[in-house]
């Protein structure tokens, strides 16, 4: 019984390929159950986001699991396995959990330390559980990973360091201890940066948010909030005089705001190059240069924190290994499989004696099909053994099952109970 990962991510896979291999919400349950029916697959979870399509599996054989998982992906999306093989990543055993722990805290994301992926993972594991494709192993993996990620975010707050100029600027107000109550913010320019600033401003308790743009219609999506009002370019001076905080995010190539146009105690942010707010020793002004320097500090802090979290991942792997050892079922499954394969090999030898003219190719085909029959017969007993490994009577139940199959571990368990 092994953990297996088969995936495609933004790191190795071109966007043109990745977007074609995305599982839709409406077909996810069907896909989970279809993967669960594949040979060797005992448990499965599918994670499918804009940046990754990943299969997290528990399999009874690694090589068989890799083969069928790869073909499952190709068949699901109607592509040749050769078309996706160059981009597929395979991970086995503890490497699977190491990767998942790193993913959960955003260490494998495009934006280092982002939190969105944690919610996506939680949803993916819950969906698989509801579909009935997880069991004792992936349920424990889910519990451990989600607990770990929450603890890391609480302890290190890696996502508290902004990664955009807009958020860095808005956070500067928090650093200054700015009191948002009964205050007015003016945002001049509603390009990409201006719109981001507006979204962040909406999350703060400003009493009034004034949006000014050459094209007033650009402000319309934000007017659902009663604090927001839209203004034309001709109202620039009037708007500037009302604001306690001013953000300029418009490209004009010249100064459009001067200290005389602003309140004496205004806090101003010039997010443009060339600059649009005329500097003055009496004006509390933050420019692209100031904010970029702060952004570099935040980026360096994120990278330092990522190194610390990566070390925590290694400790977490030891915890899972301890849990797995307590499970005590891995050697039983291994013994059951070995017994079955011994029987298969013995039957094949007997068949070769009875059919001495059998060609090597025929022998290979027969051996392959016999192993397939063995795997199909073993799948359900292995699932039951795995699920019976927890609970009040787990020790006795497992020992009894193993005695029925003639496994030494099971006999030993019952003997220990009698002493």
From TrEMBL:
Residues 179-292 form the Quinate/shikimate 5-dehydrogenase/glutamyl-tRNA reductase domain. Its EC number is 1.2.1.70. Catalyzes the NADPH-dependent reduction of glutamyl-tRNA(Glu) to glutamate 1-semialdehyde (GSA). During catalysis, the active site Cys acts as a nucleophile attacking the alpha-carbonyl group of tRNA-bound glutamate with the formation of a thioester intermediate between enzyme and glutamate, and the concomitant release of tRNA(Glu). The thioester intermediate is finally reduced by direct hydride transfer from NADPH, to form the product GSA. This is Glutamyl-tRNA reductase. The record marks 99 as: Important for activity. It catalyses: (S)-4-amino-5-oxopentanoate + tRNA(Glu) + NADP(+) = L-glutamyl-tRNA(Glu) + NADPH + H(+). GO terms for biological process: protoporphyrinogen IX biosynthetic process from glutamate. InterPro entries: 4pyrrol_synth_GluRdtase, 4pyrrol_synth_GluRdtase_dimer, 4pyrrol_synth_GluRdtase_N, GluRdtase_dimer_dom_sf, GluRdtase_N_sf, NAD(P)-bd_dom_sf, Shikm_DH/Glu-tRNA_Rdtase. Substrate binds at residues 49-52, 109, 114-116, 120. Transmembrane segments: none annotated. Residues 311-407 form the Tetrapyrrole biosynthesis glutamyl-tRNA reductase dimerisation domain. Belongs to the glutamyl-tRNA reductase family. Residues 6-155 form the Glutamyl-tRNA reductase N-terminal domain. The active site is at residue 50. It comes from the Bacteria.
